Amino acid sequence: MTTRASHIVRIEPFGRGGVKARVHLDEGEALEVMLEALERSRLGVGDTLSPDRRRALLAADADVRVRESALSLISFRARTRTELERKLRAKGFEAARIDACLDRLAESGLIDDAAVSAAFVRDRLRHRPRGRSRLRSELRAKGVTSHVADDVVDEVFEKEGVTDVQLAAEVAEAWVSRQSPALVAALSVDAWTDERQRAQRRLRGYLGRRGFSGEALRAGVARAEALSRAARERPRP
C-alpha cells in the first residue's frame, strides 16, 4: 500500500444499480470500493486520500461487503449464525469483521437461530419426517446450540401435535409403499426365515437412521408388519 497521499480526481459509479465506485487518483491505481463505503468515509472529488484515510476507506468497504454478502445469503433461504459464518469465512472475510457484522444482524432480528430451527423442523415433519434425536443432531450440525435445538424440537412437536411413535409409523408406512411386493411379504411370514430377517434389518436400519428407537421403532415395525399381513391376506383378483 502506498505511503504517500493522493487526491481523488474522479469517482465513477459502476456495477448493477451503481452500488460500486471506481475512485480515480492523481497518483497510483484506481480503487474499487462500495459506494456506501465512500459515502461513509465522506470522501469526494478533490479530497486528499492520506494513508490513514485510505485504510479507513478500505475497512469501511470490507464492512459493507461482508454485510451485503450476508444479506445475499439469507435472501435465498434462512440460515443459522454458524452457517452464515462458515459461508462468509469461505469468501475470505476476516473473522472479527464477520462476528461484528453478524452481531449487528442479530440485533436487528435478521438472524434468529430459534426461528430458523423451528422452520427447519416444521419442514422436516411435513416433507421428510425424522425422530427427535435425528432432528436435534441435524440442528446441531447447523451450529445451533444443544439448548436451542432441544427447546425448538420440543416446542414444534407440541404445537404440531406429533410424537416419535406416530411419526415412526408414518415413515414405516411410506417405506413399505416403496418396496417390492416380495420384500413386503417377507416382513410378516410365520417363520423367521432369512428373507424375513433381511427385510426386518432393512426396515429397522431405515427407521434407526431417521432417529427412531425404542418404542417408536417398535411402533414403526409393527405398522409395517400389519401392512404386510394385510397385503398377504388381501384376496387376489
Order of helices and strands: EEEHEHHHHHHHHHH
- Counted beta strands: 4
Mean pLDDT: 93
Summarize the biggest pleated sheet.
Answer: 4 strands, antiparallel
Compose a concise summary of this entry.
By secondary structure, the chain is an alpha+beta fold. The chain has 11 helices and 4 strands. Strands 3-2-1-4 form a 4-stranded antiparallel β-sheet.
What does this structure look like?
- The protein starts with 5 loop residues before the first strand and ends with a helix.
- The chain is 64% helix and 9% strand.
- The radius of gyration is 29 Å and the shape is rod-shaped.
- The mean pLDDT is 93.
- With 237 residues, it is an alpha+beta fold.
- The longest helix is centred in the N-terminal third of the chain and has 26 residues, at 51-76.
- A hairpin with a 5-residue loop joins strand 1 (6-14) and strand 2.
- It has a four-stranded antiparallel sheet.
